[in-house]
Amino acid sequence: MVKKAIQVTLSYNTIKKVTILKLVVAVSGASGVSLAKKFIDYLPKGIDVHLIITKHSKIVASFEENITIHDNRDISASIASGSFGVDVTVVIPCSMNTLAKISCGIADNLVTRVASVALKERKTLLLAPREMPFSVIALENMQRLSSLGVIISPPVLGYYADIDSLEEMERFIIGKWYDSIGIEHNLYKRWE
User: Fold this and answer.
1) What's the predicted TM-score (pTM) here?
2) Which domain holds residue 148?
């Protein structure tokens, strides 16, 4: 089976053209799971999506059938290896526990192992921490990861975007995540 390539431009440190064929979406914790589902729902066709859902966010039945779902305990899953060639990994939402483990290099489940592989392979990794307010420890973990090139992108509201509904706000947040990992979209109105 031949997959259609999606051309995207990634930009942190340097701008380079990348073809996203394999995307890991990890769902860590329960709060904000609906954003992860919509993130997947809005993806363009042709991306091979691999989903990891932690035990605290078991909502597997609501995801589409064409997504490969991995057990978070299966550290031997294909996506746990750098040779599998994941292009982009996102953790939406990202619990503070998961953030701390990734920051400290702890890879004791599939979510943290895939993030560790993204770091060692210098692949794009986006974390969407969902706690508020952030503790000093969480901020230090975010700073450490950001200095390694990780995109730290909490689901922050964009009041300047002339948004009238919760659905439009969610589309704005997801659009900002797509912008960060180089996926073209029309989820929100851009400045002209």
Assistant:
1) 0.85
2) 6-181
